[in-house]
Amino acid sequence: LVVPADAQALIADGKLDRRLFDVTELNKAAVRKSQQRGLKVIVGYRGAAAAAKAEVRDAGTLRRSLKALNADAVQTPQRDAAELWSAVADDGKTASGIARVWLDGVRKASLDKSVPQIGAPTAWAAGYDGKGVKIAVLDTGVDASHPDLKTQVIESKNFSTAADAT
């Protein structure tokens, strides 16, 4: 890690993602590709934080508003990263209205526990390969009007006796 002095306390307090300063991780090909058009971060807010949101959005390009998290995914060219830093940090603490800043980084699913847990190797050994299989997500209910789900739910079925369950 190569951490500037004014970021150390924020990392220690859990308000700043240490991956932002992990030069080994940031130099990996997948991360470089993901960040080639600029630094991508997710900025979480405290409360309504209208002024903080405006300042962050002025310092970077809003990629997506994450209403369920009270956060914004923003991107800024590397040359303008200092402006974004000024919008989220203030003298070793988060700026007013800012709760946390994460690197919007590349994640890779680890299947070493879940695949054996569901018996996939046994199914594969028996010749099953997933062709023709439909996937269902069974849930106790969702708010289909929620902004994160509004355009994502393809079909739903109410298996309860409640008329308004989704």
Describe the structure.
This protein is α+β, with helices and mostly antiparallel strands. It has a domain at 5-103: Alpha-Beta Plaits. It is 28% helix and 17% strand. The protein has helices at residues 5-12, 23-26, 29-34, 50-59, 81-88, 114-117, 120-125, and strands spanning 39-45, 61-66, 71-76, 89-90, 93-94, 98-103. The strands form 2 sheets. Strands 2-3-1-6 form a 4-stranded antiparallel beta sheet. The longest helix has 10 residues, at 50-59. It is extended and about 60 Å long.
Which ranges are low-confidence, i.e. pLDDT below 50, for 5 or more consecutive residues? none
User: Radius of gyration, rounded?
Assistant: 21 Å
Strand order of the largest sheet: 2-3-1-6
Calculate the terminal CA-CA distance, rounded to whole Å. Answer: 46 Å
**Shape type:** extended
- Tell me which CATH architecture of the domain at 5-103 applies here: 2-Layer Sandwich
CATH topology term of the domain at 5-103: Alpha-Beta Plaits
Secondary-structure class: alpha+beta
What's the CATH first level of the domain at 5-103?
Alpha Beta
Largest sheet: 4 strands, antiparallel
